[in-house]
Amino acid sequence: MDDSLLQSLREALADDDLGGTADLLTRYAPQDVAATLERLGDPQQAVAFRLLEKGAALAVFEALDPAAQRELVEQLGEREVAQVFARLDPDDRVVLLDELPATVATSLMRSVPEDSRARTDVVLGYPKGSVGRRMTPDFVSVRPTDTLGAALERVRAGGAASETIYTIPVVEQGRRLVGVISLRSLLLPPGGDLVADHMVTPMFAYADEDAEEAARRCVERRVLAFPVLDREERLLGMLTIDDATRIVEAARDEDEARAGGAEPLRLPYLRTPVRQITRSRIVWLLVLGVSAVLTVNVLELFEATLEQRVALALFIPLLTGIGGNTGSQAATTVTRALAVGEARPRDVGRVAFKELRAGALLGSLLGVLGWAVASAFYDSGIGAVIGLTLLSVCTLSATVGGAMPLAAKAMGVDPAVFSTPFISTFCDATGLLIYFTIAQQVLGI
């Protein structure tokens, strides 16, 4: 985003220079204007949006984040935004409806023409989080028996109402998908060739599939769009690359936030209210606070052991820190492998065994180093306790950290829920149990 646009808009709006503001907005692409509006304050944001031309207003509104769209609706009022809302694509309309209060959503839907409302209802009929709720029902299709010339005419006739024409589904009777053909393949070969001779086997998703998984396939395989089907293989809609990219980016932001023990912010940081920032963090802190009680209980349990060998207390931060980091590293690696399809819940045994070996190797290396340092500064007994604990803690932490995301996925829970702070707290408690148990056995206390 161009910071000069943001500064210029603020200055023009502060001077009540509406003509200059409108002229300034016409010089930038809708994506740049949308990114700038998200950072403007509430009154200025609404004023700037009102100054956009009719066509530009739709493009800018579509480029806004859903949370920013909701905020703009609240500022402008239902009547002012109804015209833009009615011209949105059905899938974009559904995303915004999910953000709005039910009363506002119902009122806005009344402003939509009946045919558009029917297409929106098709998308609304699928569960939240499914790819069916993110597909566009506005597409143009051709038949395998069409000539390329006839198919191209069909695209010309229906392409204006279609969200994408670069990947065209090929269907038989009953909307059964048999292939896809690119616009390039319609244009370049002789017009008398049949579509069947140039179509390719399609990549597709079922409407009830998880939207994130389907979107990742679309992005990773670099296709411009792919069909969405029902379980009877009938074509329902298309998932476009721009929607797939938004889904993947939103999932990435959510995973990154949860890995840090918070919920993602829906608006730019400087425009997010303090209450919303607090709300995004407090639940996680409460959960981790309750979990940390386990660590305190373990310390109380081995209080007598600490009184006999006070030196053991000096190594607690080292051991808990290494254990937590080892578990977090494993969890982060496996969560990413899940996201890109390199691992599945059924691979939990293989993943756990791989992380067990990796943890054991890490623990061996760190254990030898810990034994040498502790023996040099204290005695061989303390050195042995530190070395054996590092070996055990690293092995356990890596195994648990690697298995947790897979177990979460199998239970239908977001793997990112098992975030770094949660795993760290778990490893702290278990690591202390291992530490003091080994100390009692080795030192005879």
TrEMBL record:
The UniProt record lists the keyword Membrane: yes
Localisation per UniProt entry: Cell membrane; Membrane
Cited InterPro entries: CBS_dom (IPR000644), CBS_dom_sf (IPR046342), Mg_transptr_MgtE_intracell_dom (IPR006668), MgtE_N_sf (IPR038076), MgtE_transporter (IPR006669), SLC41_membr_dom (IPR006667), SLC41_membr_dom_sf (IPR036739)
Membrane topology annotation: Multi-pass membrane protein
Pfam families, per database record: CBS, MgtE, MgtE_N
CDD domains in the record: CBS_pair_Mg_transporter
Keywords on record: CBS domain, Cell membrane, Magnesium, Membrane, Metal-binding, Transmembrane, Transmembrane helix, Transport
Domain of life: Bacteria
Cellular-component GO terms for this entry: plasma membrane
Transport among keywords: yes
Transmembrane segments: 282-302, 358-378, 384-404, 416-438
Domain CBS: 135-198
Molecular function as annotated in GO: magnesium ion transmembrane transporter activity; metal ion binding
Function according to Swiss-Prot or TrEMBL: Acts as a magnesium transporter.
Quaternary structure and interacting proteins, as annotated: Homodimer.
Family label: Belongs to the SLC41A transporter family.
Identification of the protein by name: Magnesium transporter MgtE
